[in-house]
Amino acid sequence: MKKLSTAVLLLGAMLVAAQENEEKGKEIEDIIIVGNRNVKRTKLETPVPVDVINIDKIQRSSPQMTAQDLLNYVIPSFNAVRQSASDGTEHIDPVTLRGMGSDQILVLLNGKRRHSTSLVNYQNTVGNGSVGTDLSTIPVIAIDRIEVLRDGAAAQYGSDAIAGVINIILKKNTGASASLTYGLTGRNDGDTYQAGANYGTSLGKKEGYINLSLQLSHRGKTTRTQNHDLDIFGNNFAYAFADDPEAARAADDAKIKERGLTRDDFNFQIGDAQIRQGQLFFNAEYPFNDQFKIYSFGGFSIKEGKGFGFRRLPSETSNVVSSIYPNGFQANLGSQVYDVSYAVGAKYNVNDWFFDLSNTFGSNTFNYNVSNTNNASLGANSPTRFYAGAHSFLQNTINLDVSKKINRFNIGFGGEFRLEQYQIKPGDEASYTQYDTNGNVATEGSTVLGAGGSQSFIGFSPNNAVKKDRHSTAVYADVSYDLDKKLNIDAAARFENYSDFGNTLNGKLAVRYEFVKNYAIRAAVGTGFRAPSLQQQYFNNSYADISTSGSGIVTKGIFRNDSEAARILGFDKLKQETSVNASAGFTLRPLNKLYISVDGYWIKVKDRIVITSNITDPRLDQFNVESGRFFTNAIDTETKGVDVVVSYDWILGSGNLNINLAGNYTETKITDFHFPENLGTPQNEFFGPDQINIIETLSPKTKASLGLNYGIGKFNFLVRNTYFGKVIRDGYPFGGVQEFSPKVVTDISVGYDITKNINFTVGANNVFDVFPDRQIYENSYYGVFKYAPVQMGTLGNYFFGRLNFNF
Question: Which domains, and CATH codes, for the chain?
Answer without folding.
Answer: 13-228+267-806 (2.40.170.20)
